Amino acid sequence: ESRETFVEMVDAFTGVIGRRHEAMLEFLREPHTIDEMRQHRFIYRPHVEAPFAESVERRSAELHVQRMLRRGEAAEVAPGQFQSTP
């Protein structure tokens, strides 16, 4: 593919990450655990039954929450429960 196509693909991928991050922040308006985030399925649609889907969902939630905590976008409001900050 051309450089232009590659740049377009990277931009599209970056956009997905931003939208997913925003969706997680919205979900965390109410306190939730990492496991509840995994069950919500931010990466894979609920009907997808890939053997790795659960672990990908969990790891993605962990990484996003770590980023949110570092940025002050979320707080641990109870042991293992996270909520987005106003």
Can you give me a brief rundown of this structure?
The protein is mainly α and about 90 residues long.
Explain how this protein is built.
The chain has about 90 residues and is mainly alpha-helical. Helices cover about 60% and strands about 10% of the residues. The chain is built from 3 helices and 2 strands. The longest helix has 25 residues. The radius of gyration is 15 Å and the shape is globular. It starts with a helix and ends with a strand.
**Through-space gap between termini:** 43 Å
The 3D shape can be described as globular
For the largest sheet, list the strands in their spatial order: 1-2
Structural class: mainly alpha
Rg for CA atoms: 15 Å
Low-confidence stretches: none
Q: Layout of SSEs?
A:
Layout: H1 3-27, H2 34-40, H3 53-71, E1 74-78, E2 81-84
Antiparallel strand pairs: 1-2
Helix pairs in contact: 2-3
Write out key terms for the chains shown:
two-stranded antiparallel ribbon, 86 residues, 3 helices, mainly alpha, 59% helix, 10% strand
